[in-house]
Write a sequence for this structure.
């Protein structure tokens, strides 16, 4: 990830993730993102629609909101963390998410 995009996301953590339903239609959800070690991070729960969609098909689009008219769009694939270390990784990513005032 280039420094310009990292800085933009650090300052603007609000995003929308667009995943694919089983029938191929789009599902949108508002999330927060952070950059940790050069990678984009977010969290979810096993019960959420976006999590189930991403377990089936890891492709997604992200729209990161900035102050109008700025925004960033990313087409990506998700790697999900699960298991006993997942909570540690989530807390670790949260501590690295700078917020602008």
């Amino acid at each position: 990830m280039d420094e310009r995009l990292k800085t933009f996301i650090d300052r603007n953590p609000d995003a929308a993730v667009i995943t694919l339903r089983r029938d191929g239609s789009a599902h949108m959800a508002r999330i927060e993102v952070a950059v940790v070690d050069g990678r984009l991070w977010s969290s979810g729960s096993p019960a959420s629609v976006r999590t189930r969609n991403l377990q089936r098909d890891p492709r997604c689009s992200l729209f990161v909101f900035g102050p109008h008219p700025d925004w960033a769009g990313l087409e990506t694939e998700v790697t999900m963390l699960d298991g006993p270390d997942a909570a540690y990784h989530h807390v670790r990513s949260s501590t690295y998410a700078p917020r602008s005032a």
